[in-house]
Amino acid sequence: MTDTSRELGVGQVGYAFMGAAHSQAWRTAPSFFPLPLTPRLRALCGRDVGAAQAVADRFGWESVESDWRALIARDDIDLVDICTPGNTHAEIAVAALRAGKHVLCEKPLANTVEEAELMADAAAEAATQGVYAMVGFTYRRTPALSFARRLVADGRLGTIRHVRAQYLQDWLTDPDVPLSWRLDKSLAGSGALGDIGAHVVDAAQYVTGSAITSVSGVLRTFVDSRPVAGDHSTLGGSGSADAERGPVTVDDAAAFTASFANGALGVFEATRFATGRKNAMRLEISGSDGALAFDFEEMNLLQVYDATEPAETAGFRRIVVTEPTHPYTGAWWPPGHGLGYEHGFTHQVVDLVDAIAAGEQPRPSFADGLSVQRVLAAVETSAEDDSRRHTVPQDA
Ligand code: SOE
């Protein structure tokens, strides 16, 4: 029987959108999954103590800190969960690991490859002492995507030839959506590429079990200045056309082709300008014996095509991924009673706590995060290099 009397003291840095997603996960996980350690929500950390306290009250955090260094120094904190902008990840994560705290860090792992390498080195060193780090590529924990990986690993698709990966959002289509940290390169590292492109890079490598080995990409910024001030109560928020404007320093959209180690050809797109698409994180994989297709806007479904079936009856089948034998779903509701965005974060906590208790490296590790960071950096380098771009002659 599980000894739930063993506790895991959690300290979380950041309390906004991702902070709330993580907070609910720490609270919910032990109610649905038999965890080997019971998470204690010891402290929530944020520079705006009043705002942090309000979120702490909402989710049941026991205390509030205003300085992440103080959080790390506390004896009752065993794990530091980092939900802050990318420019802070390396410093907090490395300090926490060196202090002997397990770390969960939001994606992308860092803003640069150099920072990600530092983090991966610190994580490898900590792991030798039984202290573990994981990066939050949450979509891996969507049951349908986890199931897709199982199908590919079982050989159901045969040889993988194509990976079509898209992450489509539309929260920047209005040119008067105000500036925020996600539009500032010094804070976010990059735009759509790192914020959402990173998710599909990880998901593609995870589902296929194969690494991306080369890329060729383009980046676009469609709206290069936006209101400096505005309402940030939603992801994009709203601003005024008459307001003072400041520069957007990141990409609005990224597109790239990719080669995989297994020989597959990938086509990737990440954009915040896909009008009408709210959170369409999509993956379609074509293999010699079958294919699969996923769209997060219908996250409980996986479409599967079996090319070994007779042609006259073959076709994409729509599988509702809510059976007790599907990944994660047995802990929740009866078949057909689907899951939502927040469940990926809960599954992330479950897998992390299980790995820590078992003394095993949780995945995606910081090394996995570094591999994604290298893909992002290669896309940026490729996008800056015009030497291989060929102009298409236009009739006068
Ligand atoms: C914004 O684009 C965002 O919140 C990402 O930062 C998250 O990682 C993704 O899960 C949803 O969209």
UniProtKB/TrEMBL annotation:
Record bears the keyword Oxidoreductase: yes
Pfam families: GFO_IDH_MocA, GFO_IDH_MocA_C3
Domain GFO/IDH/MocA-like oxidoreductase: 148-292
Top-level taxon in the UniProt lineage: Bacteria
GO MF term set: nucleotide binding; oxidoreductase activity
Keyword annotations of the record: Oxidoreductase
Protein name: Gfo/Idh/MocA family oxidoreductase
Gene3D superfamilies: Dihydrodipicolinate Reductase, domain 2, NAD(P)-binding Rossmann-like Domain
Gfo/Idh/MocA-like oxidoreductase N-terminal domain sequence ranges: 10-127
Keyword Zinc: no
Entries under PANTHER family matching the protein: BCDNA.GH03377 (PTHR43818:SF11)
Organism (species): Mumia zhuanghuii
